[in-house]
Amino acid sequence: MEFRFTGTGGQGIILAASIFARAASVYEGFFALQTKHYTADMRGGEVTSDVIISMNRIIYPAIESPAYMIALAGSSFYKYKDSLRKNGVLITDKDLVRIDLINEDIRHFVCPFNKIATSEPGCSSFMNMIMLGFTLEICGIITEGSLKHSIKDLIPKKFIEINMKTLDMGIQLASEKKDT
Q: What is the value of pTM for the model shown?
């Protein structure tokens, strides 16, 4: 299974992809590989992190047509939109990614990740965890427990509670979207 996480620097895209890949490899027993691509800009530059999860050894580390694309910025979405596999899943932020037209063979989930993060007290820097919880619930390839173990491994202790809270928010949002 191939995932492309894309957005801008400062959104936590690479951290979210790292947590996702670690959960798959360390806690689920899959082979997993993560690549990172970013500009020299500290914040605001384009960021992409691809994750490959497989039952078999991963021979080639590049993704050409991901099954899932998670886009938190319009510029990065438009750069990669044509690479999404037929019958793929697209997850976008409602306010940060404007989409005029999308292929009918794409399952598209839209959620206001940024708006939710900035409106919830203490959560403004955790849009990535809301997105990660949402992605987890939509794709179903790894378990919530594995993702939470991975968060505990990679996040400083003082931020674990807020990361778990925002992850749970994303899971709940996706659960509601799947039911409609």
A: 0.91
